[in-house]
Amino acid sequence: MMSLLEQPDTYICVDVETAGPIPGDYSLLSIGACTTDEPVSTFYIELQPVNENSILEAANIHKLSMQRLEKEGVPAYEAMQRFESWLTSQVPQGNQPVLVAFNAPFDWMFINYYFMHYLGHNPFGHAALDIKALYMGAARVAWSKTSWHHISPKYEEMSNLTHHALQDALDQAELFKKILHDLQGIK
């Protein structure tokens, strides 16, 4: 029997940091991504804000300087080209890239918007897998029990999320692989 990780899908863990709750009104500030297969390959980029909109709650989480990103960040079009190029280099011919995230609706919303807005297509298509939903089904728990706070004690070595997009993507990839390992016994 083929394991869940041996399917013709390529799972890519993605985490984003943003200036606010919705794309278009608020900027995507950083993208962190990693493969779930060994050896792990990573991608990280910081983007120039597309406007000055920012909410304090988001700034307190991501700790990125909007002023620094304005000067040093990569323009959105170029950032998405680089991300697509990295994705293409990681996904074997014939495989579907699947965006995997801890709260995938949020991360996918920004990634989809930026790919569609700047490149006219999204290499992930509509393939997004939410780790929280996967855990909910695997552990048979209520949605309210799918926060990092509730899940990480089951996997004792899991640390708190740092809100650095690459480190969070790597940590989420480890959690994803552990949940898949637990699911191997389910037929």
Q: What would your notes on this structure say?
A:
This protein is of the alpha/beta class and 187 residues long. The chain has one domain: Nucleotidyltransferase, domain 5 (2-Layer Sandwich), CATH 3.30.420.10. The chain has 7 helices and 5 strands. The chain has a 5-stranded mixed beta sheet with strand order 3-2-1-4-5, sandwiched between helices. β2 and β3 form a beta hairpin. The longest helix has 19 residues. The N and C termini lie close together (10 Å).
Compact overview of the structure:
This protein is α/β, with parallel strands linked by helices and 187 residues long. The protein has 7 helices and 5 strands.
What key phrases describe this protein's structure?
single chain; 187 residues; alpha/beta; Nucleotidyltransferase, domain 5; 5 strands; globular
SSE layout:
Elements (H helix, E strand, L loop, with lengths): L8 E10 L9 E8 L6 E5 L9 H7 L3 H7 L3 H15 L5 E6 L2 H16 L8 E3 H9 L8 H4 L13 H19 L4
Parallel strand pairs: 1-4, 4-5
Antiparallel strand pairs: 1-2, 2-3
